[in-house]
Amino acid sequence: MKPVNVAFAIVAGGACLPAMAADEDLERRLAEQDAKIEALSARLSEQKSVSPIDLSISGYINMAAAATNNIKDAAGNELSYRGTDKEVDYRSLSSAGLQITANVTDKLSGTVQLLAEGAEDYDVDAEWAYLAYDLTPALTVRGGRLVIPLYMHSQYYTVGYAYPWVSLPPEVYNLAPVRTMDGVDVSYRFDTGNISHLLNAYHGAVQANLGGLEFSMRDIVGINLGSNWGNLSTWLSYAGAEANLDLSSQFGGPTPYDVEGEYAYFNGIGFQYDNGSLLFMAERAEVTFTNSWGASNEAYYTTLGYRIAAVTPYVTWATVEDSGYDEVRDDPAAAFLYNTQATHQKSWTFGVRTDVADSLALKVEVSSYYDLGDASQAGAVIFPGPTTVPFQTGSLFSGQPDDDETPMVFRVAAQMVF
């Protein structure tokens, strides 16, 4: 019986060895797969933590209404102020904007701001569209569609919540015919003692349609410096550009009054003091043209306000005055064109801002205007030619108010950021 038992034992042992080897191979392969899955998960987790796209969305809404006090000229014709007349206007000062910023890396970002303005039938346009790259923590370069930073409040021109008025003082902020350009800029942040500075230089170009006229500015070159010391902020700005304006379609053919390769210059200065209660702002700006009929316009405003809890009453005085008419008075066509560009007026604005929430402000204001136009230039607005140049004349009103009139504009607004 022993040989049988030995043979059985040998056969049984031979069947068990392959089964044990197969189990060990399966366990090894499963372990390898588990290790690969863990490694892949670790790499995916690492990628998510290192290179996410940080997306931020913000926006603002301006809902406003305005009306005049039924202003008329000497002939009894009703006049408007920047498109607003005695009928309540809900569109010209209303707008909405949406800003999207994507931080691709800790140095590279892209920003798009979409703007819809009531004055433009709420057509959506890209107010901003640029890429920004931080060369160093203090030095940033941007390229794309940018705001032309001429004024102290240029970067938030349409964000009504950011300033006390319903809209920025037009005597100053209406000087430049455009507010954005396609180009590049470089910004450098630095300190001198306790004063922080932002130095900005830019170059670009813009092409626009101004009331049916093709207008362009090439080689826009500018520099500005914004400084802050505690409650005090200051602003300095200078820019120049080559200006071109084709008037042939308005004069029925070629005209020597076209603007070709002439230059326009801008300079501005401003400061603001705000200690949380007392608010004082002042700004001056001047635009000068070198073409044969161009008017130079110089403008100022000063604003004084005082916060009492959530309520801020304020008063603003503003003025704009043209110069250079004596050089064109003997040429009827040049004098006419000069007056389409010249602005001469003064105003007082009294208003109240109430912050009803952290991101919502209600505003009510009334403006009174005087010293409108220049009587010595009144005759030059009549030009015996086939022209329909679509600019205001003399002031920001559509005509010359009668001497017995006291032109006034009333505005109310609800302005929110989110």
Quantity of strands, as a count: 16
Largest sheet: 16 strands, antiparallel, barrel
Strand order of the largest sheet: 1-2-3-4-5-6-7-8-9-10-11-12-13-14-15-16
CATH class of the largest domain: Mainly Beta
| CATH architecture assignment name of the largest domain | Beta Barrel
The helix content is: 10-25%
Full CATH superfamily name of the largest domain: Porin
Please compute the radius of gyration using only Cα atoms.
33 Å
Number of helices in the DSSP assignment: 4
State mean pLDDT (0 to 100 scale).
Answer: 87
Shape descriptor? globular
Strand content: over 45%
Ends distance: 96 Å
Low-confidence stretches: 1-20, 387-392
CATH topology of the largest domain: Porin
Q: How many structural domains does the protein architecture include? A: 2
Succession of helices and strands:
HEEEEEHEEEEHEEEEHEEE
- Which structural class do you get from the secondary structure elements? alpha+beta
